[in-house]
Amino acid sequence: MIEKMETFSSNFWAEIFGFIHIFINFIMAFIMQFFKFLLFTIVRPLMVGILQLASDYFWKPFLTILFNGIFQPVIIFFYNLATSLRDLALPVAQGMGYFLREFAVLIRAFRLVDVKNSINNGPFTLPQ
Fold first, then answer.
1. Per the UniProt record, which residue ranges are transmembrane (predicted)?
2. Residue 92 and residue 99: Cα distance in Å, rounded?
3. Which of 72, 77, 81, 82 sits at 20 to 30 Å (Cα–Cα) from 88?
C-alpha cells in the first residue's frame, strides 16, 4: 500500500510539473516567436534602410569628394612627374646605350672562354 501511494504521489507530481513545464515552454516559444517577429518586421527593414540611406547620402559623396579632391590630383601629379622624368631620361639612356654597345663589342673581342649553349649537349652526347 505504501509503495502504491509513493508511486501515485510520484506520478501525480510528475503530471503537475509536466503541465508546468509545458506551460513554461509555451510561454518561452511565444516570447521567442514574438522577438523573431519584431526583428524580421521592424528591426531588419530599419537597419537595411538606415544603411542604404547612409550609403547613398553620406558615404558615396564623401568618398567621391575624398578621391576627386585629394587622392586623384596627387596620383596624377606623381604620374605626370614620372612620365616627364622618363621622357627626359630616355634620350640620355639611348645615348649611353650607343656608347656602351660599342664598349661591349670591344670587350667581347678580349674574351678568354667561348661558351656555346646547345640543346643537344648532355652527359652522354657529343657537342656538335
1. 12-31, 62-82
2. 11
3. 72
Block residue for cell numbers 648532355: 122
Q: Angle at the Cα of 91 (from 90 to 94), degrees rounded to 5?
A: 85
Q: Within 13 Å and on the Cβ side, how many CA atoms surround 49?
A: 6
pLDDT tens-digit readout, 6-57: 888 888 888 899 999 999 999 999 999 999 999 999 999 999 999 999 999 9
